[in-house]
Amino acid sequence: MSDWKGSVWLGTLLSLVPVCQAAQSHFLKDVQVQVGDTLAGDLSIYRGNLTVQGVVDGNVVVMLGDCRLEPGAQILGNLAVVQGQLSLDNPEQVSGRISQRDFLKAAQAESSSPFEMEGQPLEGGLDDEDGDWDEDSSTEDTRPRHVWESEDDIDLFLSFNRVAGLQMGLQLASGRSPLLPNKFADLTGYAAWTFGSKRPEWRVKLRRKLLDSPNLYLAVEAHRLTDTQDGWMLSSKENSLAGWLLQLDYRDYYDNRGYTGELGTFLFDGLLHANASFFRESYEPMDVGTQWSWSPADRVYRPNLYSAGLGYTGSDNQGLRGGLDICLWREAEQLENEAWQKGAGLTVTYEKGLDGNDYDWSYERTLGNLRFALPLSRHKFEHLSGRLLVGSLSGHAPEQYQFRLGGPDALPGFRSKSIDGLGADDHQDRVSLNLKGGDQAMVLFSLENRFSGEALDFWPLSSLDLLLMADVGQIAPGLEKLDSDEYRSDVGIGVSDEDDDFRLAMFRATDSGEADWRLLLRIQRRF
Hints:
This protein is mainly β.
């Protein structure tokens, strides 16, 4: 860290010392001191804005928010504004020291009106794209897509993959939010017919609150579905369209039947969700059920990785699962899209397989998924977002739990699932089978820098945003075997519309000067 960055960091810490013992603290909340009012004691605000029209008799700190002092307002102590804007007419409105720090620019912010920000958690958590299903795993996405919402609670949906074929059914509208105060329980789920595998599929979950608290619940769930571990690589909506239009399917599937008992809680107005559950499931291989698509391309679907033809057999599994989901997400009030949000979210899941009669898997798997978004310009011209995904697998686990990288959202410069830690050739569509199990560790770090086309003021670029992207990842036989010399990386450049409804990008692996550029079209955010 350079000297000036160190001085900014130290100066900010020193400016916060007298404020850390504030009498009042507010989180994700805007605060206003009205004309004629006097707020006695120190005041601290995290991820919220402060407007002072009266008097604050104490020290004030505002972190990740803006502070505005109206004419006649007074702060009878020190004032610290960290990573936010400060607006005041006269420095004498603050009796003590004024400290304003910007870690990104390391300079005083402009004395202009701050952005009016409204704190709001991202509905359904970071992994709930449409808020229409209540999964909270960072690696599974089996939720129905292409939903036609009705006025009541039952919606029609369609989805498609190369194993189950076209899936059509009905789902009960649902969400992951705490139960309403006047609601004792809720029922969610769906039922569908799969035209490729020619069978019914269903999932039903009953959740009821405990101790008459909307934040504490007990749930039971049962299912029979075509499951996948690849939801984080590509959403169901995009994967279905890739199958329909391009005859490409980036996921692999298996038959999953079982049930779960879950205990969970929501804290801090739903910003934190914790749950623990016991599950029993059976996994069966599935072959490709359809070769149909609307694609004019002369190709067939590649074999499903978890198929009997590749040596996979059925297995049973039981164990314990636990999850923690923390979501701190905010969006500029003037913008109604996700492209320029700011905030962070962390999802951690842990699973332990238990031995038992006909349940012979003994393993531990941990996944951590950290996502963040941060504006680099107060004029919304530049924005940085990223993700760090870390996974660890030890013991004898079902084959479906093996880690693989490559393809959309998982090193896009490489072929889909070409990096598996088993020596696969990154330039071939090769499937690797590891029936012996064993330890594995996965690390994936992705960054995306967005530049607004409005700053260019040159048509047609003014209506598009420029994207610069980079990824680095590795799979190794255990966390201790992660080697800095073995990381794979790629870089990408692309464009998207200002609402990020679509993006067109090109990626290239950086480990070879002869690597091909790979074209990727997306209709949702990358991560």
